[in-house]
């Protein structure tokens, strides 16, 4: 477990001092299949570990440079055992693997907005579909909305060059409407909504083919972990 100990970090800079195990992990990460390849070594290591988090064409050169050369200098490894438990469970669990969050929907008495990328990568739009459905069911008195923005993947929704025009207006309008007290978008109560409830039960994104790359990355990382533990 040496690599995944608490407070252990993976230096992403090529010039950084890295242990043999870290260098090994980085070179294995470079082999892992992904949607987009990049000429930047740090970006390649990062997307080998997580999968591509954004579509490159949506980021400016300045943002890409800042992200890889200034922002993410080191990668904390302590979260990975927890992330693995979440991935294996298929929903959020605590660090011991217990379902201790989703059983308390009453604690989440607030409005929510879900924004998914329509050009799916890393996570599928299904995640926001299910979260929105969960909140509409358990907190029907609050405003819950979901938007799928065409052409975006995952983190490019927030750091993309066009985010201020394509994405942020959805956030601003949601905050405004929630503050104005226009909370209820669709009330999931009573007989009249049973048809709507049925429609929500169907997954509108069946054609996306699931989270194949994500699954592949997790499987590949599992193999790496086993290899490094031995
Ligand atoms: Zn890149
Ligand atoms: Zn993310």
TrEMBL record:
Which UniProt keywords are given for this protein, alphabetically ordered? FAD, Flavoprotein, Oxidoreductase
Cofactor requirements of the protein: FAD
- Please list the GO terms describing molecular function: oxidoreductase activity
The keyword Aminoacyl-tRNA synthetase appears for this protein: no
**SUPFAM superfamilies in the cross-refs:** alpha/beta-Hydrolases (SSF53474)
List the InterPro entries hit by this protein, alphabetically.
AB_hydrolase_fold (IPR029058), Cholesterol_Oxidase (IPR052542)
Q: What is this protein called?
A: Uncharacterized protein
């Amino acid at each position: 477990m040496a690599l995944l100990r608490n407070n252990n970090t993976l230096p992403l800079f090529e010039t950084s001092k890295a242990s043999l195990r870290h260098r090994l992990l980085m070179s294995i990460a470079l082999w892992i299949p992904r949607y987009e390849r990049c000429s930047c070594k740090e970006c390649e290591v990062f997307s080998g570990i997580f999968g591509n988090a954004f579509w490159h064409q949506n980021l400016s050169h300045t943002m890409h440079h800042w992200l890889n050369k200034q922002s993410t200098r080191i990668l904390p490894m302590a979260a990975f055992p927890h992330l693995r438990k979440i991935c294996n469970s298929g929903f959020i669990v605590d660090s011991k693997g217990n379902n201790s969050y989703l059983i308390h929907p009453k604690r989440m008495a607030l409005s929510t907005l879900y924004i998914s990328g329509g050009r799916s990568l890393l996570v599928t739009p299904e995640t926001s579909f299910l979260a929105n459905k969960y909140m509409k069911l358990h907190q029907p008195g609050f405003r819950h909305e979901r938007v799928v923005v065409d052409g975006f993947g995952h983190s490019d929704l927030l750091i993309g060059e066009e985010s201020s025009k394509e994405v942020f207006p959805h956030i601003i309008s949601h905050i405004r409407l929630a503050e104005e007290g226009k909370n209820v978008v669709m009330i999931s109560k009573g007989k009249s909504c049973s048809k709507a409830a049925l429609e929500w039960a169907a997954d509108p994104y069946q054609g996306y083919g699931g989270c194949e790359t994500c699954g592949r990355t997790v499987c590949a990382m599992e193999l790496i972990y086993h290899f490094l533990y031995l």
